[in-house]
Amino acid sequence: MKIFSPAAMAEIRKGSAIVAGAVEILCRDPIRLWGGHGELPIEGEAYQPLGDRALGQVSGQSIGGAAQNIGLTLSGIEPEAIELLDAEEVRRAPATLRRLIFSGDGKRMLDQHVFTRGRLDPLTVRDVIGGTATINTSIESAARGLGRRGGRMRTDADQRLIKADDGFFKNVSFAAEKNLYWGGQKPATAAQATGAIPASGYAGGYNAQLQAE
Fold first, then answer.
1. Do residues 139 and 72 lie in contact, with contact meaning Cβ atoms separated by under 8 Å?
2. Which of 39, 95, 98, 117 is deepest in the core (most CB within 10 A)?
3. pLDDT tens column, 13-68
């Protein structure tokens, strides 16, 4: 369970809080980026701004299905910068994705915490002739394996795949999990499974307002 600071909760209840994201990739030369303007210090490290370029994508799930990775997209990259990217070095590098809560005017960071940790895999580059490029990657969290043999339990069907006569989860329809949608559309599998109605801010990206729950 994530606990926000009193100042962040007050801004969330007013409906004026702004959510942003920051990612740290611990390759040979660590990469630290955040989805905003100006250099941002977080826990003693300087995160470089991405400005209007996209950073986050979607985290989703489905009943009885495998957990999805968290997709990261960095668009508007100049070709000269792509030449400096060592995909093999970045691939499988440890990565930490943080959620940042700002005041409604976007000038004060009220709180931040780790949203997920994992490793980058895969990493692809899409070039546009005569224009800029886009980098796509995803963070593979512990729920996706990372070499583990077990799995995440959600339903009776999940448990019976591991042990056919274990009916412990037969009265459980879904083990609830909170997801944060940073841009993009809400996954259809999650919407169909829960019957939830997407909040108006979900499709707006990092500058979407949070709704108090």
1. yes
2. 95
3. 998 998 888 888 888 888 888 888 889 999 999 998 877 565 555 454 444 444 55
* Tokens 């709704």 -> residue: 211
Cite the beta strand spans of the chain per DSSP E. Answer: 18-25, 31-34, 40-42, 45-49, 70-77, 94-102, 109-126, 133-141
Give the Cα separation of 106 and 118 in Å (integer): 28
What is the number of residues in the chain? Answer: 213
DSSP 185: P
Q: How far apart are CA 47 and CA 7, in angstroms?
A: 23
Q: What is residue 177's DSSP assignment?
A: -
Instruction: Using DSSP bridges, classify how beta strands 94-102 and 45-49 pair: parallel, antiparallel or unpaired.
Output: unpaired
Report phi then psi at 57, rounded to 5: -130, -115
pLDDT tens readout for residues 96-137: 888 899 998 888 999 999 888 888 876 666 766 666 667 777
